[in-house]
Amino acid sequence: MIKITLPDGSIREYAEGTTPLEVAKSISEGLARNIISAKFNGVTVETVTPLKEDGSLILYSWNNKEGKTAFWHSTSHVVAQALEELYPGVKLTIGPAIDNGFYYDVDLPEGSISEKDFPEIEKNALEIARGKHDFKMRSATKAEALELYKSQDNQYKVELIENLEDGTITFCDHDTFTDLCRGGHIPNTGIIKAIKILSVAGAYWRGNEKNNQLTRVYGISFPKQKELTEYLELLEEAKKRDHRKLGKELELFTFSQKVGQGLPLWLPKGAALRERLENFLKKAQKKAGYEMVITPHIGQKELYVTSGHYEKYGADSFQPIKTPKEDEEFLLKPMNCPHHCEIYNTKPFSYRELPKRYAEFGTVYRYEQSGELHGLTRVRGFTQDDAHIFCTPDQLADEFKNVIDLTLYVLGSLGFGNFTAQVSVRDLEKPEKYIGSVENWEKAENAIINAAKEKGLDFVIESGEAAFYGPKLDFMVKDALGRNWQLGTIQVDYNLPERFDLTYKGSDNELHRPVMIHRAPFGSMERFIALLLEHTGGNFPLWLMPEQAIILPVSEKHEIYAQKVLNSLENNDIRALIDNRNETVGKKIREAEMNKIPFMLIVGENEEKEETISIRRHGGEDLGAISVKAFSDLVLNEINSTLKSF
Ligand SMILES: [Zn+2]
Ligand SMILES: [Zn+2]
Known about the structure:
alpha+beta
């Protein structure tokens, strides 16, 4: 008999050789029907792998990330089989699951695959899936494996096998298809009910441009047709909301090849938007006891040698800047923390003067390969809404709660209501991985977990996910399209205070090390605005909109009245403008809709006579004719309902 420990901590006994699927069946038939993947003692196994020793077993369904990975990877086998049938002589390479779906890299003997070929591949793959073929793993010797692929003239698989150790090589068979594979499959192909080929792209073998270029076929699959339909609708919506497209349409930012890739240029409307976001956070930070600091964009190389950043990132980042003086080198600032440590170091502090909270909208530069750059989400220069808190270990719990409060305030004011949190703690079995005393780690981890509980966060604890220098809490925000974004990390750090020899005088008159907290609710202004654009589709919360209202005079006769309306709106701090072009009101409305301006104020004969404005909301709702005062109240009420004071 073997002892199997389940995630709830219960231990059950089974005969040696029992499979994960049989374990599921012993718990309930319903569970067994949904199980598509499993992990045994931390290693992914098949649902039909015989378990031969005591250990911990986790069973996964489609609803788990691990289940989806097995599902999509298994589909890549089915699609590869379809490609072999449709493109005789095609050479298979690798076919992993990715975040959303899977890909398979193939070397086509001739021609290419294009969008018009997708339906045929899908049809073929789906037919194979319907055959309900079991995925069966089998071992092979290195010699057998090499022989198979040498006979197919497949140099890619041969290369893969040459790097494997004899005795570790496995194949996965289903139907008439066979593939070199480590494992991690669903029970059979019949579970796959919907397959969509999404795109093709060129990809170099092993990512090296000196190698052959292969065809990468991207796809996704689902256990229900309905789920595929929903996914495709989301993709359509995501395309419409792509921040690169919206940023251009709304004239927020641009890029210039001349300035350089990955270096965003903020246009006036985008700069105003950023400024509003910054002022919003500055105001809340001031109330929370932060002090603003400003530091330069470069620092001596030595600074980053001290901080450890040079050792870790130096080789893969922007290279040092030289000066006419020999041996003098500067680096573009990759992080603000070292500068803030030096600010802390300018004078001695007693425990009574802590915490010190230094905040800066600090621009940093990190080299990203050009292929990795993406709109505002992956750039080479960006501004963090950074702050570092230096406190005593006893103050950590309160500081953590304050940072959570601030982060929740920020997310709430920007319309993010759907989020979870993750607390990353040590791997207790590997104490050698972490710096700082065990006592301090325990204190910090408890402080974070208690703070998360006290604030009512929906959170999970991940052990082993902490950085070597301290535990942390991450917020995971779900956007309007159901995608997860990591935002607002709060990170404890025992490392930099050590490296920069930071101290404070304790009540015992001795010198002690402060604890450092890094935090940035937005993360970076660039990435946050990208996320906000995609979450809202450009319909930002009213308080943040570049223009809140546009006045549309019916004809030039009403321009003077329009100007009068504008003046009183401005007196009420409402951002508005007049569209007095010689165009029809219909055309002006259409353009204002395109520009996502929340309110269109139409002024004509009647309005002027009655001293009113006719209000149309973005999206078409007609609010009728009301006084300017009533409109101003409406706008202010709406702003106050989302933008609570901190
Ligand atoms: Zn496989
Ligand atoms: Zn930092």
